[in-house]
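QUALITY CONTROL LOG
STEP: pairwise intake check
CHECKER ROLE: data steward
CRITERIA: each record must contain a sequence immediately followed by its structure tokens, with no blank fields

ENTRY 1 OF 2
RESULT FIELD BELOW
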Amino acid sequence: MTEQADNRAPTVRQLRLVVEAEDYDAAVAFFRDALGLPEQAYSGGDGARVVILEAGRATLELANPAQRRMIDEVEVGRQVAPRLRVAFEVDDSRAVTDRLVAAGATEIAPPTVTPWHSLNARLDVPAGLQLTVFQELRSAEERATLDGFGTET
């Protein structure tokens, strides 16, 4: 991170991913009820429906095509990811994967230990999304000491 970036106040307060869901009720049931995202706000009218679900801290992960292919190879063993994929950090990847499959997700790959020390599972889920649930196996402090972690300068 540059010195200039360190001194600026953040201008973005929230990252919101907006997804059109053909089967709105199934998507809400999956993300709110099965995954457990709390309902933060709801609005709509004249047949329009929307729900805003709280998903904790948001980050934007930008990857070049080679990195996306490498992640697919590690998590799934083959190229499957669309251009956009959603990832949620959870406390127990195995239990959440089982719960989401029971709620209608299709498991693409079971929980797998990655080179970046997390336990990742890949799923096809409602609203046409591909989802990774991941569990960090090491603390941020432990990961920071490993090769390949940190920021580019």
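ENTRY 2 OF 2
RESULT FIELD BELOW
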Amino acid sequence: MRATLSIIAILLLAACARPEPLDEQSAVHDPFARCSGDDRRACMAQVEAREIAGSGGRVQRRGMRLTFRLGNGETTALVNDTSDGGSAKRYVYAGYLPSIRHHVVEVRYYEGGSVLLLHEQTGATTDVHGFPAVAPGGRRVATASMDLIAGYTPNHIRVWRVTDTHLELEWGLDGGTRWGASDPVWHGPHVVTFTRHTLPSPSAGPSEVIRTSMRLDLRNGGLTVQSQDP
């Protein structure tokens, strides 16, 4: 009986130590996904408060100022512009991604918005436009964005290389005014799928958008993009 229990314990330890499979999916980090409608702003404030509380004091909100205590001992801040015009912007903290050592911040402009990634050691910021999906292993990040109707946000898919100090753009494809991208999901460290949203004509409306599942493969030093739909 004792020997049997020992074998079970060994098997359980082995299962716990087993590395994650390479085809494990890594999807978009968007803590505000459930915030919508008239209460979106209040919902986002609640999410931000929760994420700041979990930052261990590295992030603080004081009125209009969002302050970050960096790993190099310095601090940096993002300050809201509450003017009623084109320069207006509001920063909302969206959490920390330890695998890439970046904080995530949503930016709301007078019209439209974006997403910033801020390096926790250097304070370097990268405007990536869409919420990030981190590849297994943390060496790449995919972002997608679109605004086919109003055009406040660029329409594209991007892959960023994670360095020790910042992000570098590795690959990108722009859709112009005809198509945008959403929902990047990693399948291992080299393959990412996303949804392409296409307007069949310049005069088409939101109800006419065509959605296509796409696959991007970054293996073997090359790049392939193809549709997954039949």
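INTAKE CHECK: passed for both entries
DESCRIPTIVE NOTE, ENTRY 2: The helical segments are 2-17, 40-53.
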